[in-house]
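Comment thread on ticket #2218

A.B. wrote:
> Attaching the input chain for the structure job we discussed in standup.
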Amino acid sequence: MFYLIAAILGSSSLTIILKLFQLKGVDRTVGITVNYIVGAAMAFLFAPKTVSVAEIVHAPWFPLGMLTGAMFMLSFMVYALSAQRSGVAVTTISGRAAMAIPVIFAFAVLGETPTPLKIVLLILLILSMPVILYKRQEPGRTEERSLAWTAGLPIAVFLFNGTNDTLVQYIQKVQIAARDDNPIFMGSMFVAGAVMGLVYYLIERRGKWYVPTGRDLLWGTILGATNWVCMIGVLYALTRMDGSIFYALYYSGAIVCATIVGVWAFREKLSPLNYAGIVVAVAAIVLLSMQ
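C.D. wrote:
> Ran it. Output below, let me know if you need it in another format.
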């Protein structure tokens, strides 16, 4: 339960820190790239054992680990673009609905047992996400967006998030299960994310250099430390829980925490419908955690 709580708190904190990026004027690409560099450094620094580069490269999880790390970086950028072009609410719902992909994978491929009560609770959690995140459009405010932006980007967010979590689940359950490689795998994945971030940075800047500010480095470091805590929680929770249960609790718990913090810290307003969604989600989380 400790690792599950760490994963939930870490994930909800990531959402809040990314929101602070905008408020603090942090360059998103630089901040996210620094985040992966810091995360990799912490993963290798606090790893219980030291391994050589050759051992890492020949580990069974290395190819998929590199792919997952690069995709995590790309998913951050797709998420940011979708939030800008398609709206924060739609993007967040798409990202959280992605829990369905690793949950279905756990049942269909990893052989976890879908009891009737578990299925009902999982459905309640998935349905509660759009209810919690629903925001009524302000009167007189209209936004015109093409179908490609409105539908395409949120779908991309859904697929990226779901695929990333499915890969992490598969690697942890199948390729790391008998080994104590969680910290090394995480560090390697963060290195891949950092490399992808640098490539994205060079393409985005097109030769126009940007000198990172102290603010970029500070908030990137905070994001990286939080990301490290989150991933430690995810990987070790998966060693102790079924993936179907973990991802349902992880996704829904994170969005409930982030919503509550949004109300408390950012004075965001919730409708009765939002509160009803939170109540349903919390009840389902409690019951599902008892399974």
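A.B. wrote:
> Thanks. Noting for the ticket: The chain is about 80% helix and 0% strand.
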